[in-house]
Fold Cell division protein FtsL.
Amino acid sequence: MAAKARASAGRTNRQKTGRPVYGSAYVHGTAAPKLEPKTAPSPERPGKKPADRRSVRASHRIRRNQERAMYMDLPYVIMLTIASVFTLYLCINYLHVQSSITARMHNIERLETELEQLKAENDALETSINTSVDLNKIYEIATKELGMVYARKNQVLLYDKTESEYVRQYEDIPEY
């Protein structure tokens, strides 16, 4: 009896579309009603509803579509094979290019290391050359052995700067 009352209350709470109607039925009290699970329709029911026929048709249509999807004819297999071979070719080509790039990067790193080492050696040699030069010794050899002297003020000739940054001498400098 209580199950019938709950079932009829459930029908009154729903519209014909199956949506619940909110606020139409109010349960008084603090106890929630116990819900009973819906019973599955028995397969030996004599009459089928139209909704059952639609679900059977839909399931039959789904099954048929799945069978069509699983069926592979010769052109499909050939196209699938060609696509697979092409994809494999692209993957192998990609791996080849990637390994080539990696090898070039390692080569660049090796050359950069070698360049840094050569720069360090060059700087060390330049420093040793600059420290080995004794300017006092050069002055003594130039003045005593070679007879060189500093230029006097009347021996220095100044030229105006032309468009180019250097002066070409086409003839001897005149003596005053």
